[in-house]
């Protein structure tokens, strides 16, 4: 027979366990991981390969690699002094980098940090903003000029001698500010999806002709749309200055979509783009509303999908 003290102890333990059962999921749902980037880094793009995340600096073009388990990292490739914005890995140990107002692109060996090849994509005013690899080609957006730049990848991923320019036509109309920004493939892989930051519109792009059609969105406008991530038919669209992610369920052909939910968090400070590993999303805080200085702190926020 248990003593009164034993019964009291067991009752207290049961109450603790019951409380953990009732309240555990809610606490887990709000848990957020963060880890720092170097002071003054001014992050923009992110790409994840294996257990590491890669970040580009819009200040220097440096590429920084962080271990997603520990948050520790280091610069693996020194930049040219011009931006590194959108990033994409290709499964061959290479990182494709959009060069912003330098009007160029680079391909970097992730093991050595060596620049394997550089491409002059534009002369004059340009803003090469983001990149996606679809099939055997890499596509770059230009937020200042209505074009996509395409790198046709040969057998075993062989890099081409030069890029091909695809002029955008049809529904998209460029205006003042940031135009075409984030880019992903459509759910069926037959076209590309591009967000236009200044209008908040999402466009489907024929990668051969450059012809564009507006995607019919229900329940949202993607003003300040920046980085995009597609998982199946779910599109995650970062709205940088709005400090949120719009989660959109797309049709199979990518011609329409509806807002499912919005993800926000108190630690978002103008996140620019997003990458995923497991059940978590990772976003670098670009802090556009903070005047950058050598000692300005930057970090990465991780939230549940």
Distance between the termini: 49 Å
Overall shape: globular
Helix content percent band:
under 10%
Structural class: mainly beta
| Average pLDDT number | 91
As for the number of domains, it is: 1
SSE layout and pairings?
Elements (H helix, E strand, L loop, with lengths): L3 H27 L2 E5 L5 E7 L2 E6 L5 E5 L5 E5 L9 E3 L4 E5 L5 E6 L5 E6 L7 E7 L2 E6 L4 E6 L11 E4 L1 E2 L9 E6 L6 E5 L4 E5 L5 E4 L1 E3 L6 E7 L2 E6 L4 E7 L5 E9 L10 E3 L2 E5 L13 E7 L1
Parallel strand pairs: 14-18, 19-23
Antiparallel strand pairs: 1-26, 2-3, 3-4, 4-5, 6-7, 7-8, 8-9, 10-11, 11-12, 12-13, 15-16, 16-17, 17-18, 20-21, 21-22, 22-23, 24-25, 25-26
Structural summary, described in words:
The chain has 305 residues and is mostly beta strands. The protein has a single domain, classed as Methylamine Dehydrogenase, Chain H (7 Propeller). It contains one helix and 26 strands. A five-stranded mixed sheet has the order 14-18-17-16-15, with no helix packed on it. Strands 19-23-22-21-20 form a five-stranded mixed sheet, with no helix packed on it. A hairpin with a 4-residue loop joins β16 and β17. The chain is globular, with a radius of gyration of 22 Å. The N terminus is likely disordered.
